[in-house]
Amino acid sequence: MMHRFFTLFLMFFLSVLLCGGLFAAQRNTMTCDWCGKKIASNASFLKSEDKNFCSEKCFDAYVESLLPVCDVCGRRFKQGFTSDGKNYCSKACLETTFRECVHCHRREPRGVILGTDIFLCDYCRELPACSSCQMPLDKFAKELGDGRTLCRECARDAIFTQSEAEKIMTALRQKLADKFKMGTKHTITFDLCTREELKKESTGDGERELGLFIFNRNTITFFNRPIRSKDEFRILILKGQPPDFFRGVGAHELAHDWMQENLPHIDDPQLREGFAEFVSWLYAKTEKLDRVPWRIEQNTDPVYGDGFRRVRDLMGDAKTASEWKRILLNVCPAPAK
Ligand SMILES: [Zn+2]
Ligand SMILES: [Zn+2]
Ligand SMILES: [Zn+2]
Ligand SMILES: [Zn+2]
Ligand SMILES: [Zn+2]
To answer: Is 118 helix (H, G, I), strand (E, B) or coil?
Structure first.
C-alpha cells in the first residue's frame, strides 16, 4: 500500500490598496464585493485586484473563502497537506487516513497489508521477521536451528510431529479431491522433514523450499525387457510451519502429484510450479487461509511468482481439475504416442 502526500503551501499574492478619494469618480455606484453594501462616497475602502471591500473584515472573509477546505475536519487552512486530490489542514487530520501498524501502533502512510487486513508499516518491515508469517519478532520468538525463526503465534501451533503431518495431509488430499475433483488413487508417502533432509532430496534450491514432491519409476526388467514398473510417490514437507502455511505447501505438492499422473509431459518449470502455486492459492482462498494467498501473490520469483500469475490468467474461472487439464493441454499438447 502506497500513500503519497505532499505539503501544500498556499501563497497569496493579493495586493491590497487602501483607497480614499482617488476613485471619487466611480464612488457613486460602488458596492462591497463581499457583503454587497454600498460604500459611502466619503469612506475609505480596500481594493484588491478588481474587487472592492468596505472593510478589512470583508476583505479577510473574502481571502478566507479562497482557502482550501480540510477533507477531514472541514476547516479552511493556509498551510497543510494534499494527498490523492484531497486536502488536509494538519498532520493530525492527514494521519486519520493512515492505517495503524499492527506492530508499533503508529499511524503510518507506507507499509504492506499482510493477509487481508493486517497493516505493517515500512519501519516495522525492516525488523527481524518471522520466517513463516513475516511479522516482526519479539522476545518470545523461537529459533528452529535451521536458519528459521518463528514468532510466538506461529511457534504455538506449528507442525512438529509426523502423526500430525500425516493427519493433515490425508484430510487435505480428500479435500482437494472433493473440492476440485483433483484426486489420485495411488499411495503417497508423506514425510515431515528437516531442512537438511529436504536439501538432500531436492534438485533445486533446498535453502528456500518448504516442501517437495518426489516421483520415482522403478522398472523391473527381464532379459532387458521391461516387464513391470513400480511407481513411488513421496511428499516431503518442512517441519515447523503453522497449519495454514503447512496446508498451502501441502496443496502445492499434491498438485504436482496430480500433474504427474495427468500431465506428465509438461516440463516447462513455469507451468509446473505456476500450476502448483495456483492450486495452493485457490484452495487457500476458498478455505480463507488469508496469509497463504498473500504470500503467493507477493512472490516475485520468475518461476513461482510469474508462473502463478501466468497460470491464474490461463485458468480464468475454471475450478475443476478436468477443466484445468483441458486448458493446460491446449497450451502444451501431449506428444503423439
Ligand atoms: Zn463589506
Ligand atoms: Zn483538518
Ligand atoms: Zn510499525
Ligand atoms: Zn509468524
Ligand atoms: Zn513445486
So the answer is: strand
C-alpha 276 – ligand 5 centre gap (Å): 6
Q: H/E element holding 7?
A: strand 6-9
Last residue of a domain, one of 75, 93, 111: 93
Residues within 5 Å of ion ligand 3, judged at the Cβ atom: 101, 103-104, 121, 124
201 and 219 belong to one structural domain: yes
Residues 56 and 148 in one domain: no
Among residues 62, 80, 61, the alpha carbon closest in space to that of 70 is found at 80
How many A from CA of 213 to the centre of ligand 5?
Answer: 7
The secondary structure of residue 310, as a DSSP letter, is H
3 state SS of 182: coil
pTM exceeding the 0.85 threshold for the entire prediction: no
Q: How far is the CA of 26 from the centre of ligand 1 (A)?
A: 17
Tens of pLDDT along 124-155? 999 999 999 888 998 899 999 999 999 999 99
**336 inside domain:** no
Q: Residues of 43-55 as b/e, b for ≥16 C-beta within 10 angstroms?
A: eebbbbeeebbbb
| Residue pLDDT, tens place only, 95-112 | 888 999 988 999 888 888
The reply to whether 316 and 266 lie within a common domain is yes
